[in-house]
Write a structure and sequence with these properties.
Layout: E1 2-10, E2 16-25, E3 30-34, H1 41-48, E4 56-61, E5 64-65, H2 71-76, E6 78-82, H3 93-103, H4 108-121, H5 138-151, E7 156-160, H6 168-185, E8 188-193, H7 196-202, E9 205-210, E10 214-219, H8 221-226, H9 231-237, H10 241-245, E11 257-258, E12 265-269, E13 273-277, E14 283-287, E15 293-294, E16 299-300, H11 306-315, E17 320-324, E18 330-335, H12 336-346
Parallel strand pairs: 3-8, 3-9, 6-7, 7-8, 16-17
Antiparallel strand pairs: 1-2, 1-4, 4-5, 9-10, 11-18, 12-13, 13-14, 14-15, 17-18
Helix pairs in contact: 3-4, 3-5, 4-5, 11-12
Bound molecules: adenosine-5'-triphosphate (ATP).
């Protein structure tokens, strides 16, 4: 657990970057610091690995005040990911990841073996390990940055705008990857972003910062979204609030048309459509009555939200959305009309 106790940082030039920060990040959870530029998110995060010392107040890690701990060994238990990955340009991917292990005194061969495992964990293509950072895409560099932070298996991870240098599609991919990794590893994570959607998607809890470095609200995403503490938080989440809140409404009440056992081939759906399933049981295309193949759209995972259901309908070329098993295999279909009915019921416009 990481605890901030009334932590304040005033820089030498008189700038108050952080003002009276008090919050707890429970072990195994992901807390997002979100807010506009310059409101003290990074400074707050850097207090945890002693890159910044608080002017007053305390930071405790696992119940111990870190003020008295030597910085270098303290940092060994903390992974750090920054924008663009922060990779060493003259080292290969493998050596970048192995480097943190070498610093811990592991022999070269052992460090490289462990680095391989970390690279696998972030699903970076193995053929990329001998490349240099400049030969990777932004998204790939970020994956290497995450692999490097995870390589030594530290209990704590600090992530400063880790996904902001990549385009929105890659960004969402990396966010989902992060959720998967976190569900396996259960690290204690602080992630800094200015993107409220990223905060809502990734955070177990969200701390909303305002200029001047004071936290306005610290709560779970649904509370921040549906009960913003004040005008500042409201301004941050206000836009598209109704749509965003659908992420917290269940899609379970939407009637489904079960598909039964799905084998490779085509499944006829209604008069006009066929769903094509590949040899791995995954939906590969919708085929219309003229035989044109179209991308199948997103799927509603088990336990998925009303927002996932709406997205499945909006991205589908057919008037059906696909419920999946979480790995791309369709299990049932939902109809657009039923999704719209569920939305209307939620909005209270149908009784
Ligand atoms: N070393 C420093 N000396 C003086 N002022 C600083 C220093 N580092 C940061 N600041 C100031 O402290 C304030 C908070 O900065 P910080 O980087 O923590 O904000 P942030 O919310 O992370 O913003 P961004 O998203 O732009 O990184 C800003 O006004 C910044 O200019």
């Amino acid at each position: 657990m990481i605890t901030f106790e009334n932590a304040t940082k005033v820089f030498a030039d008189g700038t108050t970057a952080v003002e009276g920060l008090s919050l707890k990040v429970e072990a195994g959870t992901l807390t997002v610091f979100v807010g506009p530029s310059g409101c003290g998110k990074t400074t707050s995060m850097r207090m945890v690995n002693k890159m910044v010392a608080p002017t007053s107040g305390r930071i405790l890690v696992g119940g111990r005040d870190i003020a008295g701990l030597p910085a270098v060994p303290h940092r060994l238990g903390i992974g750090y990911v920054i924008q663009h990955g922060g990779l060493l340009p003259h080292r290969t991917v493998l050596d970048n990841v192995a480097q943190v292990l070498r610093l811990r005194g592991l022999r070269k061969r052992v460090a490289r073996a462990r680095a391989h495992e970390a690279i696998e964990r972030v699903r970076l293509r193995p053929e990329l390990i001998d490349r240099y950072p400049a030969q990777l895409s932004g998204g790939q560099q970020q994956r290497v940055g995450v692999a490097r932070a995870l390589a030594a298996d530290p209990p704590i991870l600090l992530m400063d705008e880790p996904f902001s240098a990549v385009d929105p599609v890659v960004r969402e991919e990396l966010q989902l990857e992060m959720l998967r990794i976190q569900s396996e590893l259960r690290k204690t994570i602080i992630l800094v972003t200015h993107d409220i959607d990223e905060a809502l998607r990734l955070g177990d809890r969200i701390a909303v910062f305002a200029p001047g470095g004071a936290v306005q609200q610290y709560a779970d995403p649904e509370t921040v979204l549906t009960r913003p503490a004040n005008a500042h938080v409201h301004a941050l989440v206000g836009r598209d609030q109704g749509y965003r809140s659908l992420a917290f409404a269940s899609a379970d009440a939407i009637p489904t048309l079960p598909l039964g056992p799905v084998l490779a081939g085509r499944i006829r759906v209604g008069e006009a459509w066929e769903l094509e399933v590949d040899e791995n049981g995954r939906a590969s295309a919708w085929i219309d009555r003229r035989g044109a193949r179209r991308a199948p759209g997103s799927q509603v995972p088990p336990g998925g939200s009303l927002r996932a259901a709406l997205e499945a309908i909006l991205t589908s070329p057919a008037p059906y959305g696909i419920r999946g098993d979480g790995s791309g295999r369709p299990t049932a279909l939902i109809e657009a009309a039923d999704v719209y009915r569920a939305l209307a019921l939620r909005n209270g416009s149908l009784r």
